[in-house]
Q: What sequence folds into this?
């Protein structure tokens, strides 16, 4: 099975342009800059929040959201607001203030937070990464998540890129945008 997923991902990145590769490498760097901005927003309010907590808050607002909306909601939350949307996302963000990564029980949200915080080996597997691998599930079980992650890591080695940047590259090419 892993070989099937690896081949699917390999075919997606086979004709990656230099611009797409640059965009993929930059994506998580930009997300990390946002996480530092969230830390600063809290500091301006007299609240001490570290990068792990900030990245976890951003990730908490990611389920079922476009990136632009995710950014808006995380920023609003950092400024003391209560963003509209899925109540579970708000609860996760509140828990992230106390527990950081440990507040995120979902494999995707936990990996996403770690990738945002700078972990080059964190691989975010969402619905688009499943579809890119030819799997028609919205949320992979533990076994599938590990298999898709292994496939991304294999492609990363082939491309001499980090796993998180490789995941971003596959996502950008397959989804068709950085959004």
A:
């Amino acid at each position: 099975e892993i070989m099937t997923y690896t081949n699917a991902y390999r075919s997606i990145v086979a004709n990656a342009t230099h611009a797409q590769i640059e965009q993929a490498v930059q994506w998580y760097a930009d997300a990390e800059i946002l996480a530092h901005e969230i830390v600063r927003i809290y500091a301006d309010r007299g609240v001490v929040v570290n990068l792990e907590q900030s990245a976890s808050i951003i990730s908490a607002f990611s389920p079922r959201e476009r990136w632009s909306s995710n950014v808006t909601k995380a920023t609003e939350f950092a400024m003391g607001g209560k963003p509209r949307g899925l109540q579970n996302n708000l609860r996760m963000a509140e828990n992230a203030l106390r527990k950081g990564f440990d507040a995120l029980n979902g494999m995707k949200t936990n990996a996403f937070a770690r990738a945002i915080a700078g972990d080059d080996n964190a691989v975010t597997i969402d619905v688009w990464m499943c579809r890119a691998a030819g799997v028609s599930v919205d949320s992979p079980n533990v076994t599938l998540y590990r298999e898709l992650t292994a496939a991304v890591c294999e492609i990363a080695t082939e491309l001499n890129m980090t796993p998180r940047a490789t995941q971003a590259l596959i996502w950008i090419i397959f989804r068709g945008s950085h959004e």
Summary: The chain has nine helices and no strands.
